[in-house]
């Protein structure tokens, strides 16, 4: 095969309600860019990346001179062509590389008639378990969907348990004062005896606040405490003062940081993200390092639609040391751009696709519908809260939203 063309389409996907986080909010929708890489045999490989608009589409199509004529099976060469570490100081192409890698792996699988997991060593599990991934939420325009109180949080979690079978629950914090969020988190854990929990304030706490918060939840069935503060040194100080394992998807996102964490441990569990790390293959390599040094491995979510979810499933299928349920925003989506609609959960897990390539197909009508919605609504500022237009966060943060 040889690559003959590359296309990018930015879409907006509506959410059940606006999701709040320590940096601002998802304003009731995700913005994603769908990438299509076409080969000379007529096959099309699919990729996906976060963000979008004219700049993302231009960045993707700007890679056409690099890619036309390239064999999509030479994915290692792609890494150096597109994201050489010194060149990337200037072009910052890691997430672009990831979207292209997804599409090239998809092309290889389609050409050979095998699923991507077969190209990556073969699956060791056929279903990937997921956590419920809960957020505090703004209400929709009609007043529905709000999650602000412990009672609303528990009720929403119970709906997800009944609908999808989750037995692990992750709460995204860093929005309200830490004492308030700790009580909400405790209410969540106590409402589901026998389930496991995890908390993530996105690094918003000071080291001292993070230690205090950890000591207030140490009696719960915690998987881990994720990014309670910012930076490897801050995480190391927290780790020295709590028995709860610490996890990150922010301060160990490349091999240099992984090596630093091995030499001077600050984090116990690495959340691998197929976009942040530059593709599925780098995540598998990182999982191998974690296996060698007995670090925990989980799968991070960066707001995926069905294409990137498929990459997460193939990663989860082949990594033997995936010792925690994966994260996914997926159940917050109202729809998807893949044929057949959203992939279903069963008993808190999603089946790994076995069709050729990534195992998902584009629904062209849905792609057009949500591309038009993006053109209508445009992007939104991820690092702003629509309820607090003049606010922006500090690290550590101390200006919390008012839960009343």
Automatic annotation (TrEMBL):
Residues 383-404 are annotated as: Disordered. It catalyses: D-glucarate = 5-dehydro-4-deoxy-D-glucarate + H2O. Pathway: Carbohydrate acid metabolism; D-glucarate degradation; 2,5-dioxopentanoate from D-glucarate: step 1/2. One of its GO terms (biological process) is amino acid catabolic process. Residues 150-245 form the Mandelate racemase/muconate lactonizing enzyme C-terminal domain. It is an enzyme of class 4 (lyase). GO terms for molecular function: glucarate dehydratase activity. Its EC number is 4.2.1.40. It comes from the Bacteria. Gene3D superfamilies: Enolase-like C-terminal domain, Enolase-like, N-terminal domain. Pfam families: MR_MLE_C (PF13378), MR_MLE_N (PF02746). PANTHER family: D-GALACTONATE DEHYDRATASE-RELATED, GLUCARATE DEHYDRATASE. This is glucarate dehydratase.
